[in-house]
Design a protein that fits this description.
Blueprint: H1 7-34, H2 45-59, H3 71-81, E1 86-89, E2 92-97, E3 100-107, E4 110-123, H4 129-142, E5 146-150, E6 154-162, H5 169-188
Antiparallel strand pairs: 1-2, 2-3, 3-4, 4-6, 5-6
Helix pairs in contact: 1-2
């Protein structure tokens, strides 16, 4: 029997304790500081300085909810950085990527949400309806996050996400595009 046999039990205890401490610090120190509440109840100047520093570190994170960053602005920047031409209409951005036409949909009332759609990838007719449903069902079960649907007798693929952190957002957009491409490739296989 080694010293590591009980690591799982103690590891969970340590992890849960750290989560509790993080939540305690946020609720009792950082959140009041964000509201500019007096923290003179702390015993000494060094402790107050530490908590002020922790609060500033928290504020400097790139959270959508902490800043008034709109999802549409982040996606426009992603497209521009990758040299992708786009056209914006109302709450849609239409663009072409790897010879496929996509739509980026955002909701002004929910700045954390976005959907990328690959519309009209196949036509649904009476003679292919059952095979289309089987392909959609197969791809929906095989591909993570992306889902195929039938919209006005045409197959559409979409991926929806809620994003609360601005960190690595470009990687998320790229992964969403790759997932939609993989779905399309699998769906159009003979």
């Amino acid at each position: 029997m080694s010293n590591f046999d009980d690591f799982g039990k103690y590891g969970k205890l340590v992890f849960n304790t750290l989560i509790f401490l993080e939540r305690y610090l946020y609720l009792n120190i950082i959140k009041p500081l964000r509201k500019e509440i007096n923290i003179n109840f702390l015993k000494n100047y060094y402790t107050q300085s530490l908590y002020k520093y922790l609060s500033l570190e928290y504020e400097q994170k790139n959270y959508f909810c902490a800043k008034n960053i709109k999802m549409i602005d982040a996606f426009r920047r992603y497209l521009s950085l990758n040299g992708i031409q786009y056209e914006e209409l109302n709450s849609l951005i239409n663009f072409e990527y790897n010879e496929l036409k996509y739509m980026f949909v955002y909701d002004e009332s929910d700045t954390h949400y976005f959907r990328i759609i690959l519309p009209n990838i196949a036509e649904v007719r009476n003679d292919n309806e059952i095979s289309i449903y089987k392909k959609i069902n197969h791809c929906n079960n095989q591909i993570k996050a992306a889902k195929g649907t039938i919209n006005n007798e045409s197959v559409w693929i979409s991926i929806e996400q809620f994003v609360y952190s601005y960190d690595h957002i470009n990687n998320l957009y790229a992964r969403c595009m790759n997932i939609l491409q993989a779905y399309f490739n699998q769906f159009t296989e003979k």
